[in-house]
Design brief:
Layout: H1 6-16, E1 22-27, H2 34-41, E2 47-51, H3 57-70, H4 81-88, E3 96-101, H5 104-109, H6 113-123, E4 130-136, H7 139-144, H8 146-150, E5 157-162, H9 168-174, H10 180-190, H11 194-197, H12 206-215, H13 224-232, H14 236-247, H15 253-260, H16 264-276, E6 280-283, E7 298-301, H17 304-313, H18 317-322, H19 325-358, E8 368-373, E9 378-384, E10 390-396, H20 404-417, E11 423-428, H21 434-441, E12 446-450
Parallel strand pairs: 1-4, 1-5, 2-3, 3-4, 10-11, 11-12
Antiparallel strand pairs: 6-7, 8-9, 9-10
Helix pairs in contact: 3-4, 4-6, 10-17, 10-19, 12-19, 14-15, 14-17, 17-19
Length: 451
């Protein structure tokens, strides 16, 4: 049963129910659940699925033909594209589905492929209709190169759907025995990638899962970060140096320049490439009247697993090779892990807020939402209505109790940002100190939310 993909299934169903044939592109990060979504969607319909190889045109045709032969469909040893299309579809009046997984490999090995397929499907209009679902894990290629590569055939694309990572609440469903703290920790390490979740055991605690699956040299995810980088990037040494700079707290261009010694122009190019792959992001502060107090040009790692790797595994490589995984976990991860969790905790709090809004439980209809990156500090979440009604939120997971002083500091930052707080939400997964709880009892616009 698919979790958290109701809208995506509805999107595909809409095209399946349309008259005639359609081409839909589904893309997203590897492991995010694209293949499972498509396979389960097509499970009860006439469908042929082909996992494209990273190979030349002739080899691609051979492998596709071999899979058809294995399914009992006779084709030549090296069939043409037209022969493959014909053999992959049945002579039935019902609409059929043809899934081409990692179709960018087909496009790269055979420039004429997409035009031939579009012409074939058009030629079949009187005979049969087909929903062609083309799947890709190369998000950068789809967003920046696909249309140019397709040429005029790009006009045949009926739909384009990006499959985004799942949220914290879906992870909680997958690990129902985890406490809130353990679930936040796992989400901080893996993010919303269900392909990574599958490598973890719901019956093991957070420490056991990290030690066995990530820290162990034979763990399923021990080299996952290197695979993520090497799959799309060259010059890994440069990229790893920049990611190390970001993970160690150097978030501005000048700071990265001082850390790496690379030229600013070179750093800018590599940052752009990392952003296209959705491994890092540039922080855009919520636009307020207090612009003079904003930080500008701030970058951070947004891929949870890459962030974990460059915070702990990359700088601790020598030590990890010399000590037991459990010792490394206790000495090198535990002392700073709550601080590491803070980015993911903010994401979960924002997800909670948007869920409340969807249920009609939010104080107002949200028109815009973001964060304020200030020179003196950050306001984690800002939400406003069209009329300017404002909610400010602070997400605290680093301390054993949310202190009153952090609430006061948020009010100070709101003054710097020139924001008037109509509502204030404070989040923690621990507890609130007594003074803050007393303050909340006397203020209707102050809400304390314990995850």
């Amino acid at each position: 049963m698919l979790t958290g993909r109701k809208k995506e299934v509805q999107y595909l169903q809409k095209f399946f129910e349309k008259n005639g044939s359609q081409f839909v592109v589904i893309y997203g990060q590897r492991g995010v659940g694209k293949t499972r979504l498509v396979r389960e969607f097509a499970d009860e319909s006439p469908c042929f699925y082909y996992a494209c190889r990273e190979a030349g045109e002739r080899e691609q045709q051979f492998q596709w033909g071999r899979e058809l032969s294995d399914a009992g469909i006779a084709v030549e040893e090296f069939p043409t594209w037209q022969e493959l299309f014909e053999a992959s579809l049945q002579d039935i009046p019902d609409k059929q589905i043809l899934v081409l997984d990692e179709f960018q490999y087909l496009m790269k090995s055979s420039p004429s492929f997409i035009e031939e397929m579009a012409a074939f499907v058009e030629g079949q209009a009187e005979k049969r209709s087909v929903l062609v679902i083309m799947v890709s894990s190369s998000t950068s290629w789809v967003e920046n190169s696909m249309v140019k590569k397709m040429g005029m055939a790009a006009y045949k694309i009926s739909g384009l759907l990006k499959i985004k990572p799942l949220g914290f609440f879906e992870l909680r469903e997958a690990f129902p025995n985890y406490s809130s703290e353990q679930a936040f920790g796992l989400y901080a390490v893996l993010g919303g990638n269900p392909g990574l979740w599958k490598c973890m055991s719901p019956t093991k605690n957070l420490k056991e899962n990290i030690c066995d699956t990530i820290l162990s040299p034979v763990g399923a995810l021990h080299d996952e970060c290197r695979r993520i980088l090497s799959e799309e990037l060259r010059e890994l040494g440069v990229y790893q140096t920049i990611l190390s700079a970001l993970a160690s707290g150097h978030h501005k261009l000048n700071d990265i320049y001082a850390y790496t010694g690379f030229s600013r122009a070179k750093i800018s190019v590599y940052l752009k490439n990392l952003m296209e792959l959705e491994l890092i992001e540039k922080v855009f502060s919520y636009d307020t009247a207090g612009r003079e107090h904003m930080q500008k040009g701030v970058y951070r790692i947004c891929n949870h697993f890459v962030h974990f790797t460059f915070t702990y595994l990359y700088p601790g490589s020598s030590k990890l090779a010399a000590v037991a995984e459990e010792d490394f976990y206790e000495r090198d991860i535990v002392p700073t892990f709550r601080r590491f969790m803070s980015y993911a905790f903010k994401e979960a709090c924002r997800e909670y807020m948007m869920r409340e809004a969807a249920r009609g439980e939010f104080p107002f209809r949200i028109s815009s939402v973001g964060e304020w990156a200030g020179k003196a500090g950050d306001i984690d979440i800002i939400a406003q209505s069209e009329s300017g009604e404002t909610l400010l939120a602070v997400c605290q997971c680093e301390r054993e109790a949310f202190p009153y002083e952090d609430y006061e500091w948020m009010l100070f930052l709101a003054e710097k940002a020139k924001l008037s707080a109509d509502h204030i939400w404070l989040f923690t997964d621990k507890e609130f100190d007594a003074r803050l709880m007393a303050e909340a009892r006397g203020k209707e616009n102050l809400s304390l939310i314990l995850f």
